[in-house]
Amino acid sequence: MAELTRKDVIKLIAAAEGGGVNLACLDLSGLDLTGLKLLGANLTGANLSGANLAGVDLSPNPQTEAPSSFVRANLAGADLSGARLAGASLAGADLSGARLAGADLTDSNLSFEGKDHAKLRDADLKGAKLRGANLTGADLRGADLTGADLTHATLFKADLTGARGYPA
Asked: What radius of gyration do the chain's Cα atoms show?
């Protein structure tokens, strides 16, 4: 994996006119990417461990409607608080210790295994695909789970205080 700086990422975004920047398999660990617009970005297999993505706009590309992809990405310890991830695919992503408080994960695919203690407080998970997700010890306080697919999801010791749309 190539290692980049925030400045390099900004140059790549500018070069990918109209969104859909390809950051697949790149080492973005520890980078401060706060506030960047990564519409429809391909982050498949990227290493984002410890990266700060707070407030990042990762919504689908408005031109192609292609969602952002984090398939098998390393997001361990990453800060995605308030990030716009509607429709994003996080299948197989490592979200261990990731902070997703207040993130918009509407219609996202969060089917992942072997990850626990995700911080999803106040996250918008309406229609999210959490099929088979290991949410052991997850902080889901105040999260909106309306229409979310929790089939075979593990919620052992998850905190669902004030969560909406979750069957009691």
From this structure: 15
